Amino acid sequence: MIARFRTLLRHDGDDRGVTIIEFxxxxxxxxxxxxxxxxxxxxxxxxxxxxGALNKAGRDSTLESATSSVDEIDGKVIAMVRxxxxxxxxxTTRMSYASFSDVGKPEAFNDANGNGVRDSxxxxxxxxxxxSWDTDRGKQGLGGADDIVSYTTTASYSxxxxxxVAAGFPEVQQVTATTVLRNQPFGQQQxxxxxxxx
Length: 198
Hints:
Elements: H1 2-9, H2 18-61, H3 70-82, E1 89-97, E2 124-126, E3 139-140, E4 148-158, E5 172-182, E6 194-196
Antiparallel strand pairs: 1-3, 1-4, 2-6, 4-5
Helix pairs in contact: 2-3
């Protein structure tokens, strides 16, 4: 038995074919790794392009004339991103706030029972004027003079290499960019809210 094992371990100098077998084993792993790196790099590039386009569009949105050119401003963002992601689809939201400290904050409420959750029988401050309590006090749209506007766009596009879905990549990639700016002081800021008690 030991003699047979020694025979198997003995090197007789014939290495032909070993390299091709090693290459065949390593190639799929290397290709998968390379494709993953390309996919992640492309995603970072799309995100960076979207953020740059959104920053420019955000500055354009702060002007008084922006209310009549919202579609044109959004079109510039879409055109810039579609240069590198031609089939991308877009979803844009604009929320306006009275101050920077209000961005993304819920409407205030009277926590009568102290549980930290707004219950249906508790009074709340209706900042956005829609008649219901919201986890985000912002109003939809560009707002008015001196308002703070959070401008967010999400771009969705198909994965570059569809077979990467089997490796755990999503079939549709999504990148989101946000910019928050103050509108120009082209008039008097309108701030109003009322307390609603059910």
